[in-house]
User: Fold these one by one.
Assistant:
Number 1:
Amino acid sequence: MATIPKIQLSDVTKQFAGNLVLDGLTLDVERGESLAIIGQSGSGKSVTLKCILGLITPDRGSIRVDGEEVVGLRSAGFDRMRAKFGMLFQGSALFDSMPVWRNVTFGLTRGRQVSGSRMRAIAEENLERVGLDRRVLNLRPSELSGGMQKRVALARAIAPRPEIIFFDEPTTGLDPIRADVINDLIVSLVEDLGVTALTITHDMASARKIAHRVAMLYQGKIVWIGPRDRLYDSGNPYVDQFVQGRAEGPIQ
Amino acid sequence: MPAPKPAAALLAPFAAIGRVVVAMFAGVGRIAIFAGRTIGRAVVPPYYPGRFLEQLAHIGWFSLPVVGLTAIFTGAALAQQIYTAGSRFSATSTVPAVVVIGMVRELGPVLVGLMVAGRVSSAMAAEIGTMRVTEQLDALATLRTDSYRYLIAPRLLAAVVALPLMVLAANAIGIFGGWLLAVQKLHFNSASYLAVTRKYMSSDDFEMAMVKAGVFGFFIALMGCYHGYRTTGGAAGVGNATRNAVVGAFVLILASNFLITAMVFG
């Protein structure tokens, strides 16, 4: 019997003010798999993630998580579904009004007042997992460097132990060394915690390091999907142009 | 180039007016839906008492200095104006009565409303707007926290509670300002000034002031939260949201003040 994909998108379509962003997108992500979606800016990568998370409702199509339809879920259903997800936002999206330890444990407390000492211990444990120590616990996000903010955001995403983690441009804005630190963290999280990971990125080095498979999104459709080792000899003219960064080619 | 059809040209101004009217009603509808959604979510757990108290301090306690200064100068200026105008026809004895009625019925609620709107509506729009453009609102959703319950409802409730308390304080300070000027500069007898003030203090006027203050508080928080929540387009969008929140709150305060006054005295 075939296993049910962890995430299954079928014919997902979304347009904004007449601009077709997703055009019948179909994609499966298997349980425990790390999949990277590459593509130009505005190709619909972030919209894809937001549709799965229920932050945007697609105009048409089906999105299933563990076989359960997500599109059309009401708030209680989404609440249950979102317990499966963790998300690392492109700009980290840390809550700047609260210290690091409250940010890290927010997914557990959901903003309620819960025993500080217990939550600080949980925050410390998760920060340790991303290579930060207790000295940052009481700092505000604005007091951290970009790389440290990403790591705190990563700690926040994994603290509730989600089954699926989305990474939105995890290495954007970081120097190559810090970017590689984040890549290593993502690899270790996927392997150690056994999560399913979906990453959207422009960074080819990152895609090759963190993903088992890579999919190329162009004009709202998947134009190529294959193992990461085939990224540079895919034989697909869109992928070739994109990974080589050429101005000439089918992508205009 | 083909000449425009005469009928279309004639109708163009009406079409433009129609578009503005439709846009205005659509805006009112969106604000009403936003308010309704917030109230609907606010009555269902989880509740955030800590957030409510935090907002109560931001809106009420930290606005007290500016409200106090506004009230004391307004009360004193009002006493001076009534005295100057009244002296032309030997009616200077009306100073304490007009100060207390003017402060309680109109100036207290309206000035507190406008000052707090300037301070709080803009801050709410800027904070929530920044959260929108930096994806913090999306982060709240992914962390299974309803932004209406967590961010909007505590602000609305705190503003509705804080404004009446601040208007009470402003009325007292404004009446004190009038008394201070009348006794120190205009040489009124303190005891008789206070006796007239007490005589013209009406519980009905205080009740109306409290109702006005509650309504103004609701509009102040609603405008700040609504425009912040709908922010788009980065830093410029946050600037627009802040401006729209303050202008919207000012207009709603002045319009609702007129309506409440007209209903009570009309």
Number 2:
Amino acid sequence: MLGHYLILSAILFSIGLFGALSRRNGVVILMSIELMLNAANLALVSFSKYLVSQPVSGQAFVLFILVVAAAEVTVALAIVMEIYRSHQTIDVTNVDLMKW
Amino acid sequence: MSGEVVYLVFALPILSFIIILAFLRPLFKGRPKVSSYLGIALTGISFVLSLLLLLGVYSGKDLAASPLLWLNLGNVDIKFGAIIDGLVAIMLVVVTFISLLVQIYSVGYMRGDPAYHRYFALVSLFTGSMVGLVMASNLFWLFAFWELVGLCSYLLIGFWFDRPAAANAAKKAFIVTRVGDFGLLGAVILLFTQTGTLDIGSLHILATSGALAGSVLSWATIGILMGAMGKSAQFPLHVWLPDAMEGPTPVSALIHAATMVAAGVFLIARMYPLFEYSPNLKIVAIVGGFTAIFAATMALVMNDIKKVLAYSTISQLGYMFLGLGMGGVSVGIFHLFNHAFFKALLFLGAGSVGHATNTFDMRQMGGLGKKMPWTFACFVIASLSLAGIYPLSGFWSKDEIISSASEEPVLFYMALVTVFFTAFYMFRVVFMTFSGSYRGEKEHLHESHKEMVIPMVILAVLSVFSGFFNLNGGFAHLLGETDVETMGIFEVLSHPAAIISLLVALLGIFLAYAVYKKQWLSAAGLTRVFYPFYTLFSKKYWIDTFYEDILVRRFLVNGVFEFFSLFDRYVIDGLVNGAAKAATGVFVFFNYFDHYVVDGLVNGIGGAAKSVGKSLRHLETGQLQLYGAFIVLGIVVIVMTIFIVEVLV
Amino acid sequence: MEIETILPELVLAAAATVSLFLSSRKALWLGVGGLTAAIVLVTLSWGEEISGGFLIRDNFSWFFNLIFLGSALLVLLASRLDLILREREYPALIIFSTIGMTLLSSSNDLVSIMLSLELTSIPLYVMAGLGRDKKSAEASLKYALLGILASAVLIFGMVFVFGFTGETALPKIAQAVSKAEVNPGLIAGLFLMIGGFGFKIAALPFHMWAPDVYEGAPTEVTTFLSTASKAAGLAVLVRILSAFEAPVWLDWGMVLAILSALGMTIGNLVAIHQTNIKRMLAYSGIAHTGYILIGVASLGMDGAALSNTIFYIVAFALSDMASFLSVIAISSNIGSDDIADYAGIARHSPLVALVISLGLISLAGIPLTAGFLAKLYIFTGALDSGLSWLVIVAIINTVISAYYYFKVIKVMWFDEPLKVNRVTVSFLLGLALLVSSAGILVMGIAPSLIMNALGQISLPF
């Protein structure tokens, strides 16, 4: 059973990753990264359930990850707002003033 | 007197540097002379102390300075300590003495320069670092001061940095000597890793006892030799020294006589036991013998008086290497000792002439002998000494080198031809500058200030007498050599090598006399006859061109750097561009997939194709998603590699 | 766990929170006071070892805390007044991030590592955008999105490590790892984590954000990023790796050695072509991360590697600090970050030019500066660990790097000034410049002062 959950988690992580690397909308990128974090959470919970002798630490870990993810997204959304104000777009591919 | 005095010899010039820079320069803006007085006073005390040390060593006193612990590297303590022996004492006297005279001379020469304070601060630092280099008991310190000497020469050669030529010359000196420095650094690291010590005394013991031998010793000495060749401007690293003339002339005197270029010769003398037990002593002699004649040929055709002197220095340094390689420490260092006085004098003389005429081009001079009698007299004495005329100082040391080279016929004849060239080019300078009639435009030529003349007179006296120091082997005894052939002041004239070299030198002077004084032979005619050689010499064998144009510009800048810039563009950015383009297939696929699964129904295949084009166009640097892709790709590659290497294999 | 364990953090948190309600100038002074108090507290705690649950306060963490607090204090002193006046939260953000760092270097558990890493990073994302222009906003966006991506990767790695060892506390993980057999899950977990920290310290190939963010962010923030933030990433990386010291089937030292070689080489080569000084220093920082990784790679093999690595980190932080603080001084006067515009600065402002030259010389590794000894220590340590090929690469790189450092020095001292621009330096900025350049010289001339302290640092497992 653990294997199934881990595979699901890996698939979710990969979908999130490819979303983060291919979508152009800043907000969608954030959502994709959320998906990656949730994949981590899923793996964490399943490890706690099936493999680990003391499940509490793993489940507590999940709660912390959720909190951290919320904080990250809040700040990142504010930054995307700031980008919209200065660049009039949230298409990250257009944010390339600095390169080389 | 205890040996710890040596730390004072080192500390005083450094102190002078700090005081001038920190206090005198900001506080005494309007009275620049204060700096020179301080520098002269402190260097003077240093000189007196080193003289006392020399007398102490000479009288056989046991002078040792206990080291100060500085740095603990692994199991090894690096101490800031000093060696006091004959070699160090002589070098200290030469360095502080020449520096003292140069500073006195500079009071006149640099009068009115806006950066007067900076000049004296740098000369003090230069002197201090050279003293540190000489007395260092540890290769680590030696290397640190070695670099500091290089830095000071960089700053002094580029002293008038608003002249592009000076800035370029400074850069050239710095870069070319660095090439040698890497050899030295390599040798230091090699010795440290192989022996665990950088203490010079211990290394000597290891080498003489045979514990340090074989390829390690061989490579270490080659590295040390590279460092010495860079600093002492030996072929093929000689190109920086002629350009270094762009600095103030007293600095040239300092560099050529006592500090910068003497460091290389000193280094080989310091590490001599290592060379003695390695197969590379012969290489030192060959490098020296070749450089001596090679540089002398270029000195034959230069029209800039300082350039002639510069090539002359390279050539004389070659002699010193030859002396070290064939004869021993005392042979090489004795020439360094004598050379310091007459070469410093020649530069101060050239500076005096240049100061009067505002040029260093000998074609714009002539007839200065009557206008500047003191300079003229001093310059002639120094030239005679350099040419090796009995009984001036140059004769004695050059004779020792040539007789020690007689074991190797090729080197011996090269040395003899060099004697001829030397005599010729020096008297070419003397006649072109001081005899005939004045060809320049400046009026009211007059003798230089007394601050400039007095140091020259002192050096002239020494150029006559310093050779007598070794009459009864005194100099060699001081350097710890016991079985020395001693020669009296008159017996030497029965020595065949001495007679031959004396005759060859006189022949050279005579030829110069015939061409440039009496004009029995026309210089232009000679040029025409020897046209191919003339071109070769005056173009400096195209070595500078080769380095600058082919090696630096074509190869490095257009080749290597261009390659890196392309590498940079196409592999770093381009790996992002290019490899990401290659990976675009994957991205495009997932992009497509994404669109198809999530909103493919809305956009359809056409929209997907459009976004493929956009992705292609947008897969450029500055794109944060590609940065992210690199993070992920990096991890994937690492983990895959580890799997393959550690798990599967 | 006693309250004293986190007393410095409590003081800092109080100062930062109160400063949010004060006017800009008062907030600045409160921040400076809080940081000074924390420095005093940390210095007094030197030698004590307190271990409690998520945190362990040992000499390792005390020393790194001093690096973070010192950097934060210098950056705060050196910050431009207009930035402070415009952004009232700026001192609080710096301090919150510093708290994250001090906790990060003391973390003894995956959970606390993750939490303090986020506490470090989130204020930095905001600070990168405080320039309030297009470039700054862009820097902030790039840093935030990539930083969050990197921490997602890091967390995924942590999950794997947790899953295959069953523990979140580092000492227990170390035990489990030493007993474990060859384990692909653990390998993947460790390297996902290395990827996450590699982002933080700008190690190749996780470095690509650094030039853009360094260029776009206000220089004060860039300074903080390249000194404190990098040191924090390295501190936690060293702690984590020491938990993975045991297994013979996993040679992470070699991986780090290769990353180090690539980082040095590519960082230096690209730096040669930069025209913007902040961007150049960013690539130089990538190269220096490479040098530091030499020390990290030899951690398992050489007893002195830990103190050598920390010495290098301090030397680099001081040199980079001196360089970037001078950039603040010069660029805010001439209004440009282009190296070409630095022409002839030394003619009118020799002191500032001297400080930045000293910083660059130290970065280049010239004797009598901290950078030289740092390289010497790291290189000799690596030779002892049998990494001679890496030392050769590093020496070649040192030569290459001298080129672009000296190019800047040459432009400042020898080129014709474009326009007469006297660089005026405020008293506080001058103080920060003085402290950092004095630090470079003291470390370069009397290294035993700091080496003795570093000798008292060891890792518990």
